[in-house]
């Protein structure tokens, strides 16, 4: 236990140093002036402070006020030594944070008794802080393990949902990355942005309930088929919504809301404006951007520029205007995501060709 001693009187300082030496497992850190203490901060490590009240330049309260400007010293107990029995002086010390007083001349027996109690209190406080830190780390580790399991569940569900069409699997990952980029530009909390990227790939999980004749149709859907396909939003939400996992609950929210429109003309619940969860508004835009910029059986891929113009033109009708503005700010990051996806797709194709050649050989 390290005890800071500050007293401009050398005789008093020597006495205090000797008295500290008699305490079990305690080390004195003597200073003869407030300036010397302040010069040593914040590298000075101590557990208790014993400070003389009457000193030149800085009195004890003024010195302690400067010390506790550093957060690391905020909870350290301080004892003031004073020959002044005036209540005003003692109230000033208490207001500054004093937990006890020693009256000059310091009586060794009284010093030992008071310091023994304060040292015990300080040790108990340190032990409690250590236990709290241990508990914090254990909770953090447990939450981390739980989050890893949740991520694994989402990953496996995404694989299952997209098993019939590998191109759809790439689509879901791009939508997730675009969604995170937009959320970041909206200034949303980093934890939410990260969770959105994890949950967004599940936005079309309800399509597992769609018949293959509709899901894998090479061409435009009929009106009846389109109405049938619309059911995937609510089905996806129902699949995910009963989970206690916060990630799966977010995925459920996205599934049911990513086809809603800002003007209320979307589905399945015809929500409008801010009644649509922000997660759904973001993924709606990201999903549309990816659908337009990629080739589909019924249409060629649109150019990057044409797609941007289309989305900006629908701000306030199909899309949340703030999300559109964030999307525009995120375009450099979105372009980088697209380029990375193209490289990965090309590498996959090259590996597939090599594997096919190896089988033939």
Give an overview in words:
The structure is a single chain. The protein is α/β, with parallel strands linked by helices and 361 residues long. It has two domains: 2-135, Response regulator (Rossmann fold); 164-360, Orthogonal Bundle (Hypothetical protein af1432). It has helices at 10-21, 34-40, 60-67, 87-96, 108-161, 166-185, 190-199, 212-215, 223-230, 232-241, 246-257, 278-293, 304-313, 321-329, 331-360, and strands at 2-6, 27-31, 48-52, 78-82, 98-103. A five-stranded parallel β-sheet has the order 2-1-3-4-5, sandwiched between helices. Helix 4 links the parallel strand 4 (78-82) and strand 5. The termini are far apart.
Summarize this structure briefly.
The chain is an alpha/beta fold and 361 residues long. It has helices at 10-21, 34-40, 60-67, 87-96, 108-161, 166-185, 190-199, 212-215, 223-230, 232-241, 246-257, 278-293, 304-313, 321-329, 331-360; strands at 2-6, 27-31, 48-52, 78-82, 98-103.
Low-confidence stretches: none
Strand percentage: 5-15%
Kindly state the number of beta strands: 5
Shape: elongated
**Arithmetic mean pLDDT:** 86
User: Percentage of helical residues?
Assistant: 55-70%
Strand line-up in the sheet with most strands: 2-1-3-4-5
Please give the count of helices: 15
CATH superfamily grouping of the largest domain: Hypothetical protein af1432
Number of domains: 2
Under CATH at level 1, the class of the largest domain stands as: Mainly Alpha
CATH topology group of the largest domain: Hypothetical protein af1432
Gap from first CA to last CA: 75 Å
Structural class: alpha/beta
Give a short account of the largest sheet: 5 strands, parallel
N-to-C series of helices and strands? EHEHEHEHEHHHHHHHHHHH
CATH architecture of the largest domain: Orthogonal Bundle
Rg is 34 Å
